[in-house]
Design goal:
AAA+_ATPase; Rossmann fold; alpha/beta; disordered C terminus; four-stranded mixed beta sheet; 247 residues; binds adenosine-5'-triphosphate; 8 helices; six-stranded mixed beta sheet
Length: 247
Protein backbone atom coordinates (compact mmCIF):
# COMPACT_ATOMS: atom_id res chain seq x y z
CA UNK A 1 0.00 0.00 0.00
CA UNK A 2 1.07 3.61 -0.50
CA UNK A 3 -0.25 6.36 1.75
CA UNK A 4 0.62 9.56 3.59
CA UNK A 5 3.59 9.45 5.97
CA UNK A 6 2.85 9.22 9.64
CA UNK A 7 4.90 10.85 12.37
CA UNK A 8 5.83 14.51 12.47
CA UNK A 9 9.52 13.99 11.74
CA UNK A 10 9.29 11.54 8.89
CA UNK A 11 8.84 12.35 5.22
CA UNK A 12 9.09 8.71 4.10
CA UNK A 13 8.61 5.40 5.85
CA UNK A 14 9.08 2.19 3.88
CA UNK A 15 8.60 -1.19 5.52
CA UNK A 16 9.16 -4.65 4.04
CA UNK A 17 9.06 -3.44 0.43
CA UNK A 18 9.20 -6.09 -2.29
CA UNK A 19 9.02 -5.52 -6.03
CA UNK A 20 9.55 -7.93 -8.89
CA UNK A 21 9.08 -7.67 -12.64
CA UNK A 22 7.96 -11.11 -13.78
CA UNK A 23 10.41 -13.63 -12.36
CA UNK A 24 13.00 -10.96 -11.65
CA UNK A 25 13.08 -9.71 -8.05
CA UNK A 26 14.29 -6.10 -7.97
CA UNK A 27 13.65 -4.92 -4.41
CA UNK A 28 13.54 -7.52 -1.66
CA UNK A 29 12.60 -6.44 1.81
CA UNK A 30 13.55 -2.75 1.91
CA UNK A 31 13.06 -0.88 5.19
CA UNK A 32 13.83 2.83 5.03
CA UNK A 33 12.93 5.99 6.91
CA UNK A 34 13.77 9.47 5.63
CA UNK A 35 13.35 12.45 7.90
CA UNK A 36 11.81 15.77 6.90
CA UNK A 37 14.50 18.05 5.52
CA UNK A 38 16.98 15.20 5.08
CA UNK A 39 19.02 15.03 1.87
CA UNK A 40 19.18 11.36 1.07
CA UNK A 41 21.19 9.87 -1.82
CA UNK A 42 20.71 6.43 -3.30
CA UNK A 43 23.72 4.95 -5.07
CA UNK A 44 23.90 1.63 -6.83
CA UNK A 45 25.08 -0.20 -9.91
CA UNK A 46 22.97 0.01 -13.04
CA UNK A 47 19.81 -2.07 -12.94
CA UNK A 48 19.65 -2.48 -9.14
CA UNK A 49 16.25 -0.85 -8.78
CA UNK A 50 17.05 2.75 -7.83
CA UNK A 51 14.59 4.22 -10.31
CA UNK A 52 12.02 1.59 -9.37
CA UNK A 53 12.26 2.68 -5.73
CA UNK A 54 11.90 6.31 -6.76
CA UNK A 55 8.91 5.52 -8.97
CA UNK A 56 7.27 3.70 -6.08
CA UNK A 57 7.82 6.79 -3.91
CA UNK A 58 6.33 8.96 -6.66
CA UNK A 59 3.28 6.68 -6.77
CA UNK A 60 4.00 5.64 -10.37
CA UNK A 61 4.76 2.02 -9.55
CA UNK A 62 2.94 -0.28 -7.15
CA UNK A 63 4.87 -2.48 -4.68
CA UNK A 64 4.17 -6.22 -4.57
CA UNK A 65 4.38 -6.22 -0.78
CA UNK A 66 5.21 -3.83 2.02
CA UNK A 67 4.12 -0.42 3.18
CA UNK A 68 5.16 2.89 1.67
CA UNK A 69 4.14 6.02 3.53
CA UNK A 70 5.23 9.38 2.19
CA UNK A 71 4.44 13.06 2.74
CA UNK A 72 1.77 14.18 0.34
CA UNK A 73 3.50 16.86 -1.75
CA UNK A 74 6.05 14.97 -3.85
CA UNK A 75 7.64 16.19 -7.06
CA UNK A 76 10.14 14.55 -9.38
CA UNK A 77 12.92 16.06 -11.48
CA UNK A 78 14.14 13.68 -14.17
CA UNK A 79 17.35 13.33 -16.16
CA UNK A 80 15.68 15.14 -19.06
CA UNK A 81 13.75 18.37 -18.35
CA UNK A 82 10.45 17.17 -19.90
CA UNK A 83 9.25 20.64 -20.89
CA UNK A 84 6.30 21.15 -23.20
CA UNK A 85 7.75 22.71 -26.38
CA UNK A 86 4.57 24.62 -27.27
CA UNK A 87 4.41 26.38 -23.88
CA UNK A 88 6.60 29.28 -22.79
CA UNK A 89 8.92 28.86 -19.82
CA UNK A 90 6.60 30.38 -17.18
CA UNK A 91 3.66 28.31 -18.43
CA UNK A 92 5.82 25.19 -18.13
CA UNK A 93 6.77 26.12 -14.57
CA UNK A 94 3.18 26.73 -13.48
CA UNK A 95 1.59 23.95 -15.54
CA UNK A 96 -1.57 22.70 -13.87
CA UNK A 97 -1.52 25.44 -11.21
CA UNK A 98 -4.06 28.28 -10.88
CA UNK A 99 -3.27 31.67 -12.54
CA UNK A 100 -2.33 33.10 -9.13
CA UNK A 101 0.74 30.86 -9.18
CA UNK A 102 2.37 32.98 -11.86
CA UNK A 103 4.05 35.24 -9.30
CA UNK A 104 5.54 32.30 -7.41
CA UNK A 105 6.53 30.87 -10.81
CA UNK A 106 8.49 34.04 -11.56
CA UNK A 107 10.10 33.91 -8.10
CA UNK A 108 11.07 30.27 -8.66
CA UNK A 109 12.63 31.20 -12.02
CA UNK A 110 14.62 33.95 -10.31
CA UNK A 111 15.78 31.47 -7.67
CA UNK A 112 17.20 29.15 -10.31
CA UNK A 113 18.95 32.07 -12.05
CA UNK A 114 16.45 32.53 -14.89
CA UNK A 115 14.92 35.89 -14.09
CA UNK A 116 13.28 37.35 -17.18
CA UNK A 117 12.99 34.01 -19.00
CA UNK A 118 9.18 33.87 -18.48
CA UNK A 119 8.31 34.24 -22.16
CA UNK A 120 11.20 32.21 -23.61
CA UNK A 121 10.40 29.05 -25.56
CA UNK A 122 11.94 25.75 -24.37
CA UNK A 123 13.66 25.23 -27.74
CA UNK A 124 15.77 28.34 -27.18
CA UNK A 125 17.23 27.09 -23.87
CA UNK A 126 20.55 25.33 -23.28
CA UNK A 127 20.45 21.92 -21.58
CA UNK A 128 21.45 23.50 -18.27
CA UNK A 129 18.82 26.23 -18.56
CA UNK A 130 16.11 23.71 -19.42
CA UNK A 131 17.04 21.70 -16.33
CA UNK A 132 16.86 24.90 -14.26
CA UNK A 133 13.30 25.36 -15.54
CA UNK A 134 12.53 21.80 -14.43
CA UNK A 135 13.89 22.68 -10.98
CA UNK A 136 11.74 25.84 -10.87
CA UNK A 137 8.70 23.75 -11.84
CA UNK A 138 9.45 21.48 -8.87
CA UNK A 139 10.17 24.37 -6.50
CA UNK A 140 6.94 26.23 -7.21
CA UNK A 141 5.03 23.18 -5.94
CA UNK A 142 6.72 23.54 -2.55
CA UNK A 143 7.46 19.80 -2.27
CA UNK A 144 7.76 18.04 1.06
CA UNK A 145 9.63 15.29 -0.80
CA UNK A 146 11.77 16.17 -3.82
CA UNK A 147 12.61 13.14 -5.94
CA UNK A 148 15.68 13.64 -8.13
CA UNK A 149 16.26 10.90 -10.71
CA UNK A 150 19.79 11.46 -12.04
CA UNK A 151 18.91 15.10 -12.69
CA UNK A 152 22.40 16.13 -13.81
CA UNK A 153 23.48 13.02 -15.72
CA UNK A 154 22.84 14.46 -19.19
CA UNK A 155 24.72 17.72 -18.52
CA UNK A 156 28.35 18.52 -19.31
CA UNK A 157 30.78 18.30 -16.39
CA UNK A 158 30.98 22.03 -15.63
CA UNK A 159 27.21 22.59 -15.84
CA UNK A 160 26.73 19.55 -13.62
CA UNK A 161 28.91 21.09 -10.91
CA UNK A 162 27.03 24.39 -11.17
CA UNK A 163 23.69 22.59 -10.91
CA UNK A 164 24.88 20.65 -7.87
CA UNK A 165 25.74 23.94 -6.16
CA UNK A 166 22.34 25.35 -7.09
CA UNK A 167 20.48 22.31 -5.75
CA UNK A 168 22.52 22.39 -2.52
CA UNK A 169 21.58 26.05 -2.06
CA UNK A 170 17.88 25.58 -2.90
CA UNK A 171 17.52 22.57 -0.63
CA UNK A 172 19.28 24.34 2.25
CA UNK A 173 16.77 27.20 1.85
CA UNK A 174 13.55 25.23 1.33
CA UNK A 175 14.43 22.08 3.29
CA UNK A 176 12.39 19.44 1.48
CA UNK A 177 13.29 15.83 2.12
CA UNK A 178 15.32 14.90 -0.96
CA UNK A 179 15.78 11.49 -2.52
CA UNK A 180 18.58 11.73 -5.07
CA UNK A 181 19.23 8.76 -7.33
CA UNK A 182 22.69 8.96 -8.83
CA UNK A 183 25.61 6.91 -10.22
CA UNK A 184 27.99 9.69 -9.27
CA UNK A 185 29.67 8.99 -5.93
CA UNK A 186 31.12 12.50 -5.68
CA UNK A 187 27.71 14.02 -6.31
CA UNK A 188 26.24 11.97 -3.46
CA UNK A 189 29.05 12.88 -1.05
CA UNK A 190 28.93 16.55 -2.11
CA UNK A 191 25.19 16.92 -1.51
CA UNK A 192 23.75 14.35 0.84
CA UNK A 193 23.29 14.14 4.61
CA UNK A 194 23.02 10.41 4.21
CA UNK A 195 24.00 7.95 1.48
CA UNK A 196 22.66 4.46 0.95
CA UNK A 197 23.99 1.90 -1.51
CA UNK A 198 21.41 -0.39 -3.11
CA UNK A 199 22.83 -3.77 -4.13
CA UNK A 200 21.13 -7.03 -5.01
CA UNK A 201 17.74 -5.68 -3.99
CA UNK A 202 18.84 -4.63 -0.50
CA UNK A 203 20.39 -1.63 1.23
CA UNK A 204 24.09 -2.45 1.57
CA UNK A 205 25.40 0.65 3.37
CA UNK A 206 23.61 3.42 5.21
CA UNK A 207 26.08 6.16 6.00
CA UNK A 208 25.58 9.64 7.47
CA UNK A 209 27.77 12.41 6.10
CA UNK A 210 28.23 15.12 8.67
CA UNK A 211 30.70 17.33 6.78
CA UNK A 212 29.96 21.07 6.66
CA UNK A 213 28.88 22.75 3.40
CA UNK A 214 30.27 23.62 0.93
CA UNK A 215 32.26 20.41 0.91
CA UNK A 216 35.84 20.22 -0.28
CA UNK A 217 36.20 17.27 -2.64
CA UNK A 218 39.87 16.96 -1.75
CA UNK A 219 39.49 16.91 2.03
CA UNK A 220 40.54 13.64 3.72
CA UNK A 221 37.00 13.00 4.99
CA UNK A 222 35.47 13.52 1.54
CA UNK A 223 38.04 11.17 0.03
CA UNK A 224 37.37 8.66 2.81
CA UNK A 225 33.63 8.65 2.09
CA UNK A 226 34.32 8.33 -1.65
CA UNK A 227 36.49 5.27 -1.01
CA UNK A 228 33.87 3.68 1.22
CA UNK A 229 31.11 3.99 -1.38
CA UNK A 230 33.34 2.97 -4.29
CA UNK A 231 34.32 -0.17 -2.42
CA UNK A 232 30.66 -1.01 -1.74
CA UNK A 233 29.92 -0.45 -5.42
CA UNK A 234 32.61 -3.00 -6.25
CA UNK A 235 35.03 -0.42 -7.64
CA UNK A 236 38.49 -1.00 -6.21
CA UNK A 237 40.20 2.32 -5.61
CA UNK A 238 43.72 1.28 -6.51
CA UNK A 239 44.89 4.23 -8.61
CA UNK A 240 48.00 6.19 -7.50
CA UNK A 241 45.69 9.17 -6.80
CA UNK A 242 43.66 7.09 -4.38
CA UNK A 243 46.76 5.62 -2.78
CA UNK A 244 48.14 9.10 -2.11
CA UNK A 245 44.93 10.67 -0.78
CA UNK A 246 43.36 7.89 1.23
CA UNK A 247 42.75 8.47 4.92
N1 LIG B 1 8.33 -1.76 -16.14
C1 LIG B 1 9.29 -2.71 -16.10
N2 LIG B 1 9.07 -3.91 -16.64
C2 LIG B 1 10.02 -4.89 -16.58
N3 LIG B 1 11.22 -4.73 -16.00
C3 LIG B 1 11.49 -3.55 -15.46
C4 LIG B 1 10.54 -2.46 -15.47
N4 LIG B 1 11.10 -1.40 -14.83
C5 LIG B 1 12.33 -1.80 -14.45
N5 LIG B 1 12.57 -3.07 -14.82
C6 LIG B 1 13.79 -3.84 -14.54
O1 LIG B 1 14.07 -3.74 -13.16
C7 LIG B 1 15.46 -3.63 -12.94
C8 LIG B 1 15.75 -2.38 -12.14
O2 LIG B 1 15.50 -1.22 -12.97
P1 LIG B 1 15.74 0.25 -12.47
O3 LIG B 1 15.51 1.14 -13.62
O4 LIG B 1 14.96 0.48 -11.24
O5 LIG B 1 17.29 0.21 -12.09
P2 LIG B 1 18.30 1.39 -11.80
O6 LIG B 1 19.11 0.97 -10.63
O7 LIG B 1 17.57 2.67 -11.71
O8 LIG B 1 19.19 1.34 -13.12
P3 LIG B 1 20.00 2.52 -13.85
O9 LIG B 1 20.98 3.01 -12.84
O10 LIG B 1 20.63 1.84 -15.01
O11 LIG B 1 18.99 3.56 -14.23
C9 LIG B 1 16.11 -3.67 -14.31
O12 LIG B 1 16.55 -4.98 -14.56
C10 LIG B 1 15.00 -3.28 -15.24
O13 LIG B 1 15.18 -3.86 -16.50
Amino acid sequence: MTGPATGEDLAVRITGLHKAFGAKSVLSGIDLEIRRGEFFALLGPSGTGKTTLLRILAGLEVPDAGTVLAARRRTTVYQEPRLIPARRVLANVTLGLPPAARDSGRRALAEVGLEGYDRAWPATLSGGEAQRVALARALVRDPEVLLLDEPFAALDALTRLQMQELVAELCARHRPAVVLVTHDVDEAVRLADRVVVLRDGALAVDQRIDLPHPRDRNSPSFVGHRRLFLSHLGVVPDSPHFASTQT
